[in-house]
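Dear colleague,

Thank you for sharing your sequence with our group. We've completed the structure prediction you requested, and as agreed, I am returning the results in plain text so they can be pasted directly into your records. Please verify that the sequence below matches your submission; if there's any discrepancy, let me know and we will rerun it promptly.
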Amino acid sequence: MTSTATASFTVDQWEPQATDEFAGTEFARVAITKTFTGAVEGTSKVELLSATNAASRAYVAFERLEVSVDGRKGSFVLHHTADDSGLALKILTGSGAGELTGISGTANIEIEGEEHRFTLAYTL
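Please find the predicted structure tokens below.
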């Protein structure tokens, strides 16, 4: 059975690590930290790689969450892929630990102004 957990989050750190440019495409690496409150409670660290040019942009990231989900404490890795066609967030198979061992599922992020909302659809 799939469960849904929602939370708000803040971006506590956005720190560019490196940038490069090749044939009109800019590459960037960014370290990010977040804090979650709600049915997902805790923190995360993100390693993000992006590529941007005049025609498109894309990123891939791995986010290590140390959180409780609906009261279960543990951790897991969320794999981000995004481009101009959309965003996909998937729990990396086998990455769950603690009371989140065996977790699988997907997530969604919605941003409205300064508010960031996180929705996790998961099975345990």
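Summary note from our side: The domain at 3-123 is CATH 2.40.350.10 (AOC barrel-like).

Kind regards,
the structure core
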